[in-house]
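Hey, can you fold this?
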Amino acid sequence: MPDSISWLLNIRGSDIERNPVVQAFAVLHASGHLTLCVAPEKLSDAVRAHLGPDITLRPPSAFAPGLRTLRGPVRVDRATAPFQVSAELEDAGIAVVWGADPCLLPKARKNAAEIAGMEGAHLRDGAAMVEFLAWLDAEAPKGQLTEIAVVQALEGFRRATNALKEISFETICGSGPNGAIMHYRVSEETDRPLRSGEIVVIDSGGQYIDGTTDITRTVAIGPVGSDEKAAFTRVLQGMIAISRLRWPKGIAGAHLDSIARYNLWLAGQDFDHGTGHGVGAYLSVHEGPQRLSRTGDIAFEPGMILSNEPGYYREGAFGIRIENLVLVEEAPAMPGGDTHRQMLSFRTLTFAPIDRRLIDATALTEAERSWLNAYHAEVLSRIGPRVSAKAHDWLVAATKPI
């Protein structure tokens, strides 16, 4: 896949909108040599020098004929390789062995440099988000904002960092009933104003040379109803539960997904998407093979980055989603814990306030309240020095303990 090739060779491109990958074909040989079939005009002299002598360059038209010259057996990923790959090999009498793309797990397990880059990208992106949220709180009550205006403003705050390469996907901004559409994309036909008494779901992200971000915040526009607050609090409790989670090594996303839904299920509610997906390091914002969902069958390992984004959607009324990105790490030992059992945990990478106006604080447990207050204190500590004085004043108020 293009993201595997881009990761393996440590190159990036702009062939696919919002995804910084290079479209190409590649064959990885058992010797470690790699044949890269790519349009020559895509490669600058600097990139050619970076690739070095262990990479043989060929035009894309050489890929199919080249398959017929390989000495088998050849591993092919049934889930991702074009059918024509196995057809060419089999027609030439070359044995095909079905197996996973060998880049998938190493790419998912971020190394120290990738983790450091993602941390830096999230601090930069968090500052842009705080500037945006402060602006939104000041402008929304005037009654002049529409969904499109919000999308354009948010991208503007990210571009003001002078580090944004591209947004990581089309920004979702759904107000009122539009927020109940999980993968809503605003258009000129659907654009609606942000109205007092409603909530708005804003799901967005950025591509930076050091990392990829993906964050969702649900924001109140004026006073909102008790149903919205109750549902928001349940979603928040699910997000906090995942954030605080510890689990034995070897557990996959399918085993953990329901933990985010516990409070919603008790209220007879649920959401129809996975709780989280893998995220690349200046690569695709949706990256496998790990998933925090009912279909996630890949055990989590240190270095994997996933989204933590439970939600709730009431058709025709409102939608809610809260999303942070989290990093899988080895969990420190606990007093009285099993000494023979390795445990893992999540560390939050995303820093931006969660709308306190939508929280029913009386419904939170002491542990949930402590997590939220500690998170907001960390947001203020990490992001406060990075924003304007006006945004800092807003941030101080937005992160007060509850």
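Oh, and this one too while you're at it.
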Amino acid sequence: MSWKNQSGGPWGSGPRGPWGTGPQSPGPNSPDLEDLIRRGQEKLRSAMPGGFGSGKGIILVVALAIVAWLLSGFYRVEPDEQGVVLRFGRFVATSNPGLNYHLPYPIETVLTPQVTRVNRIDIGIRTGDDPRRGAAMRDVAEESLMLTGDENIVDVDFAVFWMVKPAAAGSTEDIGAANFLFNVQNPEGTIKAVAESAMREVVGRTNIQPILTGARQNIETAVHELMQKTLDDYQSGVLITQVQLQKVDPPQQVIDSFRDVQAARADAERLQNEAQAYANRVVPEARGEAARITQGAEGYKERAVIEARGQASRFLSVLAEYQKAPEVTRQRLYLETMERVFGGMDKVIIDQKASGNGVVPYLPLGALSPSSAKPAPATQGVAK
């Protein structure tokens, strides 16, 4: 029995396969692909007088190809990109974000680097993935250990933030993006090498104490300026936006000893501050006391000078009277002197011409005064 007599092959009648009847279309059968191509060719022949082989048909096909080639020159630049137009591989212009046009390939091509994205490079540290702890930081000693200006070693970890320097649209002089594409083969490696070199230069001319304390901002600014100048000299088309110090410490092997030194310096500074405070308190007091003594001496000097001048004036006046009556003035001076000498003493008057012991009784008026609480010891004097 032949398969033809089985009405559809060995699986039965109709369009059946080895797994049963295939899916059936509910509508009319789809047209054959060859039939569609054939119909399209017929319509094209009817639209083109003379068919494909005629001159008009060839011209029309060439014109359509030229139009399609010219339309291929339109391109789009994203908001975070900038277009760099190349003519036969040479930079000619830049373009702004949006829809732009350049001569079609192969005359002109366009590259669109991202010029607004800020990139980061870590120097001295690496971020690794730990299956148990997640992201882990690893120190890279060959990058972070640096020599300071006072010949100490310091461990510096820092980060550099950079972006492609955008070129002025349509400019052929300010071509930062083009320089970035053609002048630097490995941008990240170049920026990393320049950053490490700049940091070593700045740290190498700075002492360790300012680096560890208050000079961080100055160091970041100096490294930033030095990096930008170097990259501009290279015409790299890179713009450094920030340099940020992450960690500045002594090496791990000597950090304990260094902390002891720091503590000793802090104690020394504290003692100096206390001594300065004591000096600020004592010195004004001493200066005040010295000023008081000086003023007292000046007052004594003025008083002594005035008294001496008074004594001299009195002596001159006595001299004038003495010259007028020497005997009277001499007697008056003697009596005044005796009065001044014996005025504050207890006296016993003895008259040698009197009979008996010669003691002349007298009334001590000073002893009878209420102001005399205790009599002074007796003192004998001789009066002639």
